[in-house]
Design brief:
The chain starts with a helix and ends in an 8-residue tail after the last helix. It is an all-alpha fold. The longest helix is centred in the middle third of the chain and has 98 residues.
Length: 108
Amino acid sequence: MTFDELEQAVRELRDNQIVQGELLHRLEENMNERLDRLEQVVEKLADGMVVLQSAMTGMVQTVEGLAGDIRVLQSAMTGLVQSVEGLSATVERFIRGMEGNGHRPQSS
């Protein structure tokens, strides 16, 4: 190998290293940009999770409140049914008492 050939080979290696260095630099910049975007997305997701967790807590409290209200309503309805049944029994006794005293309901 002559000195000129050796010098040409060294130039080609140098040029090759320059190209590889530039490619690595571009790759690193691209990767850094993507990592920055990914970091922003993760931060937004974390913020969204905080908001979602807060909303879920509020929803759980609302559902628990509604469940308590439903229990109160069921209790009130049970009391109402018992009162109506008692009233019905009272009316029925009243009507029987009236019939027993010679009062018959008139037929239509």
